[in-house]
């Protein structure tokens, strides 16, 4: 388990598998959001400032919190055509509060297929005081 | 994974552990998934543990590693013996499928001079990628309800096509039993602005030429002739279908314990077909299937408009068929007819000649089966055969052997475009990496896949099509 933060994309024949790690559960989820975005979009510098957005996730086990956040991000992308340029995830009374900045089309270069769903296959999310890591497959 | 070779085209995985039936893999030695890189045979074993499964857990020759179900998997459960329905056995892209249109009196030679102009117009006319809109601007949620209930039939009633189209659509273009009440708010929101859009990933619209006819009588009945220009459209139910699958998998994942169902993979989440939750999923799945069929109907209309404008030719529909579905069908099991829920995840229904569900003009020849190859390679039109050993199912495409990640590292999209254009194939891409991810090297050889499907007694070849132009999602 690493105490550093980071993320990467891993090979899987079906679709896109992301791996993320960070010192805390919330930071690890934020890294997974960044990986999801990087799997299909590059953000251009400049342009209009991002539009703020936020949502809450009800309390639940860690894997359900991760899934709920990624589900919501995919829904936002599909219905607004905007992409999170930053994500801040905070613990909130057992659940989560997620603060986003959404970048519009003028700041997005689409470089790959857009994720459409989060799968439960091979889902991993665990951690302790030494750090957290997750692995999740996205359908595109 | 120990495999017993039963014939040059068929392998068996004996029952072991919690498997309720054996696994059967239709493939040649060369097409078998590579151990270590592809875990689809483990997934065949996992599917064999589903409650109520009958016959075997089948893998088609294009099988590859999916999530829960393998892609290229077929599983039938006995509805009246507690058989389950698993949304993962249908897939996220519910009723993803293929539509083939044939241009009347147009061959490659006549098209060549106008190919570039045609591709430029298709590039503009076919919405694809994130936030690029759709061909059909629905008036609002109430019109979406009509699409979910009426599918391609509703689209044709609104003037987006001709009644003859519906005779060449699986189920007449509309799957019965759809219930808008089982489609969640988020699915509706995702579906409102995407009717008539290609999406991304492996979806495409391809201009093709008939390269070879294997059976001229059947090809003639399908409306195909040598050298003829066709258009193949591969897409599905877009965000709406993905959201319906997501919602129902999540709900079933939580309620399986109530039915004492234990599974080796959460993405296989399932409930008995004959349960409130099972009925709810089947009704929502039918709504998504209707959305997918309307989607392909609208893309076909946009294509026809471009062909009429640029070339002055009309196009007739050869067929529209899904390869991600669960259907209630009656098949003989151990000598008696049983009501089965047949899951085809990346597999295509292939009805033989004489089947009662075929329209009159196809009954003598069987159902057209449309097999898209990988980008830049051949595609096939097949037909069903009697005594199919996998509940009237066959393959659905070439089948991936490389991850998107590996494919994108092997070639740049721009370089791939140059290669394809050097072969005379015009390309209008979505994104460079999206293009690179679909490089033909990332897939099995579709010629070998189709030959294995035929060798395994799953289908019969009717025509081979080669690409002339690609509009990539």
Structure description:
The complex is a heterodimer of chains A (140) and B (473). By secondary structure, chain A is of the alpha+beta class. Chain A has a single domain, classed as Archease, Possible Chaperone, Chain: A, domain 1 (3-Layer(bab) Sandwich). Helix content of chain A is 24%, strand content 43%. In chain A, a hairpin with a 5-residue loop joins β1 and β2. In chain A, α1 packs parallel to α2. The longest helix of chain A has 19 residues. Chain A is globular and about 40 Å long. By secondary structure, chain B is of the alpha+beta class. Chain B has a single domain, classed as tRNA-splicing ligase RtcB (Alpha-Beta Complex). In chain B, 31% of the residues lie in helices and 27% in strands. Chain B contains 13 helices and 19 strands. In chain B, strands 7, 8, 9, 11, 15, 16, 18 and 19 form an eight-stranded mixed β-sheet that branches. In chain B, strands 1-2-3-4-5-13-12 form a seven-stranded mixed β-sheet, with helices on both faces. In chain B, a hairpin with a 7-residue loop joins β15 and β16. The longest helix of chain B is centred in the middle third of the chain and has 36 residues. The radius of gyration of chain B is 21 Å and the shape is globular. At the A-B interface, α2 and β8 of A face β4, α6, α8, α10 and α12 of B.
From the structure above, extract its key features.
A: 140 residues, alpha+beta, Archease, Possible Chaperone, Chain: A, domain 1, 2 helices, 10 strands, 43% strand, B: 473 residues, tRNA-splicing ligase RtcB, 13 helices, 19 strands, 31% helix
Brief digest:
The complex is a heterodimer of chains A (140) and B (473). Chain A has 140 residues and is α+β, with helices and mostly antiparallel strands.
Would you identify the CATH H-level superfamily of chain B? Answer: tRNA-splicing ligase RtcB
- Find the CATH topology of chain B: tRNA-splicing ligase RtcB
Can you identify the CATH class of chain A? Alpha Beta
Coarse shape of chain B: globular
Which secondary-structure class do the elements of chain B indicate?
alpha+beta
Mean pLDDT level of chain B: 96
Please identify the top-level CATH class of chain B. Alpha Beta
Unreliable spans of chain B: none
**Largest sheet: number of strands, sense, barrel closure of chain A:** 5 strands, antiparallel
Instruction: Determine the CATH superfamily of chain A.
Output: Archease domain
Indicate the low-confidence ranges of chain A by residue numbers.
Answer: none
Number of strands of chain A: 10
How many domains make up the coordinates of chain B? 1
Which fold name corresponds to the CATH topology of chain A?
Answer: Archease, Possible Chaperone, Chain: A, domain 1
How would you describe the oligomerization state of the chains in this entry?
Answer: heterodimer
One letter per element, helices H and strands E, the order of chain A comes to EEHEEHEEEEEE
Helix content of chain A: 10-25%
